[in-house]
Design goal:
By secondary structure, the chain is an all-beta fold. The protein is 0% helix and 53% strand. It is built from no helices and eight strands. It has strands at 4-8, 11-18, 22-31, 36-44, 56-61, 67-72, 77-83, 90-97. Strand 3 (22-31) and strand 4 form a beta hairpin. The N and C termini lie far apart (29 Å).
């Protein structure tokens, strides 16, 4: 069950809890003719080796469409990816601690 949806170029990205893999960001393309969503990329939002409980919460795309951000309530971080302009795929770019408990929603300044 997806928690959040955002539009990334011509696809949609959703954040979903997946107990075996951890929290993931999964990109799906929409085939309106078939009425189907087809996954084409799945990435974890958690750091390698993290084993504690976690829930992904917020997800946002930068105003220029070049970056995607997601918050993790378990490891208390904001993870970010660059969005490949040609393919729309996510490339892990970094992680910063939020220095607070259970980060949920966050905002992106209009200037990026």
């Amino acid at each position: 069950m997806p928690r959040r949806f955002v539009k990334v170029q011509t696809a949609f990205l959703h954040i979903a809890p997946v107990p075996v893999i951890g929290r993931v960001a999964e990109q799906v393309s929409c085939d309106a003719r078939r009425g189907a969503l087809d996954a084409f990329q799945t990435v974890t939002t958690l750091p390698v080796g993290f084993t504690g409980p976690s829930k992904a919460a917020g997800v946002a795309v930068s105003p220029d469409g070049r970056f995607l951000y997601a918050s993790n309530r378990g490891d208390k971080s904001l993870v970010f990816y660059s969005i490949d302009a040609a393919s729309g795929t996510l490339v892990p770019s970094g992680r910063v601690p939020t220095e607070g408990r259970s980060p949920r929603h966050f905002g992106i300044d209009a200037s990026g």
